[in-house]
Amino acid sequence: MQSGATSIAYETIQAKDGSLPLLLPMSEVAGRMATQIGAQYLQLDRGGKGVLLGGVPGVRRAKVTVIGCGVAGTNSIKMAMGMGADVTAIDLSVKRMAELDDLFSTKITTLFSNIDNIEKSVRESDLVIGAVLIPGAKAPKLVSREMISQMSKGSVVIDIAVDQGGCIETCKPTTHQEPTFVVDGVTHYCVANMPGAVAQTSTYALTNVTLRYAQMIAKLGVEEACKKDDALKLGLNIYKGDLVYKQIADDLDLQYTTLKI
Question: Which domains, from first to last, does the chain contain?
Fold first, then answer.
């Protein structure tokens, strides 16, 4: 803002149907990685309780709870199912739960998001994946410190939404160099840029969807490109130094300026 820059945020470019086309590939990558990483940290040599996600015949499968069933959450569910885990999906949207039921049938458990369902599922889980996203806003804290303390030692939690404030109270951003920390015996993995660990896949996936916008801006300039594409216009967060995205202004207690282009 002080530099007078114009800034467009990937995560707030939004299509008419509410989807976030530039966030989509990174959400897919992060969602799939979350299950893969969670399985690793459940291993005894990584500080976990020594549970195999899919179990083996005669031995229980690991219980995985995914909170938030958008793109990232759904991809976490797919991976967890593919690895043979016992999966519970929690979401606030009845419509989304119906879609998951159609998609996965009786292979997963779907629960409406409320404090009782979240508390019981978290307490019983070996791996909890937080994947709650509110576009352009901080993620709500749905998993409390008390819930984490009730999990068994060596369990794992992963907060995909940590770069948006996180939906798990005990989470804080970490790096690839030091990705985890332990709270009440529970391993927390909270890397803010998870897809960076698989940079080749992430770069190709992101370039596939961003190139058209980059070409449009290069050809027309920011103002004309935003007039032509409503989704891109919603991506404008700062315009010539003024903060023009209200949700961010409210969250950060900064002055909001109405966008006039």
Answer: 7-18+199-252 (no CATH), 24-197 (3.40.50.720)
